[in-house]
Design goal:
Length: 271
């Protein structure tokens, strides 16, 4: 297996006159955890959607386990044919910010997991695998009969994670996956993800604006602004001694004792 489970090389994507993704490159080692950070509009989510296959790249390349998984063109929607999408989905899965919107409100937890397993592994009895997945994310088998509305936000996100893990992907993309949760629940989900990474060796691509999350759960960081990468490196090194003014601005924008929002606003205007 290649040392890097995911490689992004020179990705480009525009929407009209806006360069949403502008020559973005980074690599995720097998079993590693990489954070992509930036403000709203920085291009981090569009980059993630290209990696997963929900957006097409106009240029550049996405390689998963050394194989190209790049879909070209400007057309929106899901990229590639059905077989290509299934192959990509077995390698790269995504967990979205809002677990309620990412689950069918009419489908029970167990049925949602079985539907995913039947799609990728038809002709098998998935009862045992469903139980394993629920156990892996800290939910009991009783949760299998529950509808999404009968679960808490943290429980729904655990279901979304279980569904993503069902196909045993090499990469899990987490797009603001804990942003909608209470702080205490965020900690539980992040601890769960750390345990799963240790057990399975899966690689994580965290898309977030929260530097606290990045500091806690990532090995390396990519900082994006206006669609481009402005800084990247080891997380502890970048956050301890940022080399780019924008990274320093992000760190200084985190509220703390003595925080001066007017000074931050002035620094933003200057940048």
């Amino acid at each position: 297996m290649p040392e890097n489970v995911l490689e992004v090389r020179g990705l480009r994507r525009t929407f009209g006159a806006v360069r949403a993704v502008d020559d973005v490159s980074f690599a995720l080692p097998a079993g590693g955890s990489l954070g992509v950070v930036g403000e709203s509009g920085s291009g981090k989510t569009t980059t993630a959607r290209i990696v997963v296959g929900l957006e097409r790249a106009e240029g550049g390349e996405v390689l998963v386990r050394g194989r190209s998984r790049t879909a070209r063109g400007r057309t929106g929607g899901r990229a590639g044919g059905r077989a290509a999408r299934l192959a990509r989905a077995r390698e790269v899965q995504m967990v979205f910010q809002d677990p309620y919107l990412s689950l069918d409100p009419r489908t029970g937890v167990g049925a949602a997991l079985r539907e995913t397993l039947r799609l990728h592994f038809p002709g098998r009895d998935h009862t045992r695998r469903v139980a394993e997945l629920l156990d892996q994310v800290g939910l009991g088998t009783r949760a299998a009969e529950a509808l999404p509305r009968q679960l808490s936000g943290g429980q729904r996100q655990r279901v979304a994670i279980a569904r993503a893990l069902a196909v045993e992907p090499a990469v899990l993309v987490l797009d603001e996956a804990v942003a909608a949760l209470d702080v205490s629940v965020q900690a539980q989900i992040l601890n769960l993800l750390a345990d799963i990474r240790e057990q399975t060796g899966i690689g994580y691509l965290f898309i977030t604006h929260d530097l606290g999350v990045v500091r806690c759960v990532t090995d390396e960081i990519v900082v994006m602004r206006h669609g481009a990468v402005v800084e990247q490196g080891r997380t502890e090194e970048v956050l301890a001694a940022p080399g780019h003014p924008y990274t320093r601005l992000l760190l200084e924008s985190v509220p703390r004792p003595g925080w001066d929002p007017q000074a931050i606003a002035a620094a933003r205007r200057a940048l």
